[in-house]
Amino acid sequence: MRGLAPFWSDLFEKFGLMLLGLAVFAAVIGIILFLADRAPKKGRDFWQLLAFVAPALALLAVGLIYPAVRTTLLAFYDRTGNEFVGLDNFVWMFTQPDILQTLGNTLVWVALVPTLSTIIGLAYAIFIDKSYGEKILKSLVFMPMAISFVGAGIIWRFMYEFREVGFAEQIGLLNQLIVMFGGQPQQFLVNSPFNTLFLIVVMVWIQTGFAMVLLSAAIKGVPVEIIEAARLDGANAWQQFRNVTLPGIRGTLVVVVTTISIATLKVFDIVRSMTGGNFDTSVVANEMYTQAFNRNEFGYGSALAVILFLMVLPIVVYNVRVMRKQKEIR
């Protein structure tokens, strides 16, 4: 029994504060709902709505709005956050060769990942549509979406693993295939600039399943009557796709491309787990983390965060506008 006392004491220290916070949060919400129910009938709807929305707004303000404002302000201060330096952090960003390399890598990611993922996903959705074993084939392609980016990075790091010739057998699948056919093993994650392309393969592998699922659903939503009419008019398979299917799924295509673009701009886990941003493979999100938390350069890290936000913002706005137009059409 004496041995259990320290155990329960440590357990309470670890989780007691969390449980206390949850209890206080539930009590506050209960009091607000009780007061809202007791409010005059004329304004009861407003107070009840406020009672339900207020916790979400409070969490949004604490977890999103305040950090965003704080980060934006820090982008104009030095590493200590005390001395105002104006645009010096942004000048540093666009004059350092390493950071320019990072920005260039990010643009390559955004150019290739959405394009390749959408094309491969669309081709797969078309070719397996109404085929034998369609559900199983779709599940196999969608399965990488269930893996975290870190997990995918570790898996593919083993795929690219390199061992010196004569030192040990190759454990990386790609290098083992190269050696089997008489070639020399390659350091896929070290040799620049192709190492960035090998990292991009991992992101494409993950996002192709997402593109395939949405585009497959959109293809099935194209009216069969229109496709049959095009076939009766003598249109071949390519003409049916270009003139009937593609216009019918254009809205979904835009959503897929923009959504994958946003995820690609924020990519961090894959780069961090596979190369750590070394060998000229860093991207904006990884460099932001490195500057802010590894080197304690909070001004530089905040400036990179602001640039990342400005890169994502137009895509988010465009995506919202497209989805709003689709709702209006329906």
Q: What report would you give on this structure?
A:
With 330 residues, the chain is mainly α. The chain has helices at residues 4-38, 44-74, 88-93, 97-127, 134-142, 149-159, 173-180, 194-220, 224-232, 237-248, 250-265, 269-274, 284-294, 298-329. It has 2 domains: 5-74; 89-329, MetI-like (MetI-like fold), CATH 1.10.3720. It is built from 14 helices and no strands. The mean pLDDT is 82.
CATH third-tier fold name of the largest domain? MetI-like fold
Total of helices: 14
**Helix amount, in percent?**
over 70%
Question: Distance between the terminal alpha carbons, to the nearest Å?
Answer: 67 Å
What count of domains describes the coordinates? Answer: 2
- Structural class label: mainly alpha
Please tell me the overall pLDDT: 82
- Outline, from the CA principal axes? globular
The CATH C-level name of the largest domain is: Mainly Alpha
Strand content: under 5%
At CATH level 2, the architecture of the largest domain is Orthogonal Bundle
State the order of secondary-structure elements, H for helix, E for strand: HHHHHHHHHHHHHH
Q: What is the fourth-level CATH superfamily of the largest domain?
A: MetI-like
Pick out its properties:
330 residues; MetI-like fold; 14 helices; 2 domains; mainly alpha
Question: What's the short story on this structure?
Answer:
This protein has 330 residues and is mostly helical. The chain has helices at residues 4-38, 44-74, 88-93, 97-127, 134-142, 149-159, 173-180, 194-220, 224-232, 237-248, 250-265, 269-274, 284-294, 298-329.
